[in-house]
């Protein structure tokens, strides 16, 4: 598809790729002339201290909070997670430095390609997908890009264009990994299933840790009609996204078709569920549409925007199967890699779904 057409395209133009029910219709780019905003809906906040400090009763309360938020809109704001806001401040500065001090030539040596289910490596400006000219540079690092086992033979240069970044971001990933089982256990508990039923799959699981660098918006970019990141649904179980210092994240309210501007408190984590989760919860937890738009205040157009989401998957050979107690199964069991690549073929081309 011509990317210029993607600015006017609707998500339903790509419905054949979806592996879960998605009846909502929206433009991939922001269309201020036809879209409305929802200023009344409040994204719920869930306090993880209930899980970590509240004993069994606290775990039950947190599971109820999280489950209701996820079933309601598929997004929540997590507080009390135990990760210091200063770590996120440092990460934002390092990612800006990462993109602004490396050359395009250096970055292109790591041009993204598929490894397993996930396209890993560097995505140049306007190349996040083939269907829309996103105004962002990205870089996806998966587990193999981090020396979690302290292997002396680990080759940092195979994944990182400069030394010194891997240890810092390895630590950040380890901090986020501490949240994966509590989140999944709470979702299992919400559906009256064994809270530990996914523990083995969530131990050392597959993930995509992404750097997003949105450069300052030029007059040309502003006039083009392209969005900073197209409207989409995540493919994963759930995404862990530290709150950003520059606004732009918008969430679609499926109930009324309006967009919600999501601005989370400093140091908090935005969490949303993805296609894997919608599949295994039998459509109970929706993979909610979101996008990154230009900042509301034009004064911020000249400032780069940084984000670093961590998408939590399962490994390729795991089977995605509808959980008990979520109703009569609407979906057949499916291998995770098949599920993942059939969906993401809309972004990378039909050949992406072929077996590797």
Mean pLDDT: 96
CATH level-four homologous superfamily name: B-lactam Antibiotic, Isopenicillin N Synthase, Chain
Strand content: 15-25%
* DSSP strand count: 16
- Helix amount, in percent? 25-40%
| Distance, first to last CA | 24 Å
SSE string, helices as H and strands as E: HEHHEHHEEEHHEHEEEEEHEEEEEH
Rg from alpha-carbon coordinates? 19 Å
CATH class: Mainly Beta
Number of helices: 10
Structural class: alpha+beta
Provide the domain count: 1
Most strands sheet: 10 strands, mixed
- What characteristic shape results from the CA principal axes? globular
CATH architecture: Sandwich
pLDDT < 50 stretches: none
Query: What fold name goes in the CATH topology slot?
Result: Jelly Rolls
Explain this structure to me?
- It is a single chain.
- The chain has 356 residues and is α+β, with helices and mostly antiparallel strands.
- The protein has one domain: B-lactam Antibiotic, Isopenicillin N Synthase, Chain (Jelly Rolls, Sandwich).
- The protein contains 10 helices and 16 strands.
- The strands form 3 sheets. Strands 1, 2, 3, 4, 5, 6, 8, 11, 13 and 14 form a 10-stranded mixed beta sheet that branches. Strands 7-12-9-10 form a 4-stranded antiparallel beta sheet, with no helix packed on it.
- Strand 3 and strand 4 form a beta hairpin.
Characteristic key phrases:
16 strands, Jelly Rolls, 356 residues, alpha+beta, 19% strand, four-stranded antiparallel sheet, globular, ten-stranded mixed sheet
Give me a quick take on this structure.
With 356 residues, the protein is of the alpha+beta class. It contains ten helices and 16 strands.
